[in-house]
Amino acid sequence: MTEQETKRRRIHDFLDAQISNSEIVKTVRRIKRAKDTGSDPKRKAGSGGLNKKRDEDFVSDLLARINADPTTSMRRHARDLEVDLVEGQLP
Fold first, then answer.
1. Which helix (H) or strand (E) is 56 found in, with range?
2. What pTM was computed for the model?
3. Could you tell me which of 60, 65, 89 has the C-alpha nearest to residue 79?
4. With 8 labelled, which of 2, 34, 70, 80 sits at a CA distance of 20 to 30 A?
């Protein structure tokens, strides 16, 4: 497979995954920027899949934190627990 065919195949795979054009461009730019600066283009902690860290212990700990201080923002809890904030996913 030529280099051009490989690139087309990757873009085709992105589109099959129903990823928007803007998201594809954003991902490519992020990886290129990381490569140009010599850093490692790693993902954010917990971004491997939706609810990857969501088990009963995690949810009970989160609910205890929320009940202990209901004025703390969900973004703060997400940052403290090193997870991505997903709207509307709590029981």
1. helix 56-68
2. 0.37
3. 65
4. 34
For residue range 50-63, list pLDDT tens digits in order: 556 667 888 888 88
Locate 82 and state its tokens: 């090193």
91 compared with 11, residue with greater pLDDT: 11
Distance separating alpha carbons of residues 19 and 66, to the nearest angstrom? 33
C-alpha distances (whole Å) from 36 to each of 7, 25, 26, 29, 58 are: 19, 16, 15, 10, 37
Place of tokens 């209901």: 70
Return the structure tokens found at 88. Answer: 């509307």
Looking at residue 45, what is its pLDDT?
64
Residue labelled with tokens 């993902």: 43
Amino acid present at 36: D
Instruction: Note whether 84 and 46 are within 8 A (CB).
Output: yes
